[in-house]
Amino acid sequence: MMRSSSSTIYSSFSLFALHLLFVLSLFLLFPWISASENQFKLDGKVLELDDSNFDAAISNFDYMFVDFYAPWCGHCKRLAPELDKAAPILAGLEKPIIVAKVDADKYRKLASKHDIDGYPTLKIFMHGVSTEYYGPRKSDLLIRYLTKFVAPDVAILSSDSAIKDFIDSAGTNFPIFIGFGLNESMIANLGVKYKKKAWFSVAKDFSEDIMSLYDFDKVPALAAIHPVYNEQSIFYGPFEEKFIEDFIKQSLLPLILPISEDSLKSLKDDQRKVVLTIMDDEADEKSKGLLKVLKSAASANRDLVFGFVGVKQWEDFAESFEVYRKTPLPKMVVWDGDEEYYTVVGSESMDETDMGTQVSRFLEGYREGSVVQKRITGPTFMGFIRSQIGTIALLVIFTLLVVVLIFTMAREEPLTVGTREQAAEDSHSTSQPDLTKED
């Protein structure tokens, strides 16, 4: 009896000792936990990070948006107040995104570790893994853009109102894909793969009104919607991953893309040739009629990207394709997105009569190989070469350019016309920000 009682007392003491040890462990560990949590003051302001706390911040927060800046950089100075406005809203999301900044000019070792060689460079860190950010920089647009990164890869929509709310919240910066009556598993992998470029969802329940609104008459159907262009297209299958992915890739851009400094970025990863139509003014009535014709042609030729630009809207870009004051417009070329383009023999320009036939002949000539290959030029460069005083003028200009280059080496330059590849390459220049590093 005594032995049993002693055994019970010993067991109770051992259990008590274990509890005590556990409590003491927590007590000893608590200061370290508290120190880790309190290392960053989360008050809705932009965190200032450096060599001593950067890695800790990345480890502590699932989502961080980091601005690698230089104090002397003009673009950085303009960006700072936009980040200040966005920071408290992003920090208040259900899945918070912490906004931080690093003086990359001062902490160069840290900047080098993260491949920073241009200012500002913006990166999103998701669970410690970074991806470079090329989106808008105004606070309201930046908030919408970043919210996407913490959204589900594929949203599940169960009613008409859920569909409407999803589209409203998605905004206009990305195309939207909605699978009507489609199994989530069919686009789950693609939702992950193209999450940075589009919104993905499947609608489980919807009315005939929705079918009429999005112009499909049977299910399953996959709708691609471009809110900013008021454009949509429908895919009815086959619903195998390869065919779905082809439709998604072709639908990431609108049927006809207005060429601008911003839209060139979206062409960067698209391998298709660009059927480029150069017109005098893309906003006049004549151009609007031509755009309708081009949209029909684009719908039937999805292996090509159809783009357009007005000389009035972007003269320097148009001149890169030998378009000058006396050039008959509209003019169509096929551009590789880099340094080369093709004119079609017999279709160097268009007139106002039967533009549909002329566009069809242009495409037929291109596909048959009846083309002349050329290289893009700098603005008015060929005009100088052809003129009688071209050589002298060129030498003078070259000398002036050298002087200007020396004078502006350490200063920021305005945006210049670039090719699809330049949009990627120039992003690593501190003296001349590229198309992807400007608002």
From TrEMBL:
The keyword ATP-binding does not apply. The keyword Transmembrane applies. Residues 417-439 are annotated as: Disordered. It holds the Pfam family Thioredoxin_6. Gene3D superfamilies: Glutaredoxin. It comes from the Eukaryota. SUPFAM superfamilies: Thioredoxin-like (SSF52833). Keywords: Disulfide bond, Membrane, Redox-active center, Signal, Transmembrane, Transmembrane helix. InterPro entries: Thioredoxin-like_sf, Thioredoxin_CS, Thioredoxin_domain. Belongs to the protein disulfide isomerase family. This is Thioredoxin domain-containing protein. It comes from Penstemon smallii. The lineage of its organism: Eukaryota, Viridiplantae, Streptophyta, Embryophyta, Tracheophyta.
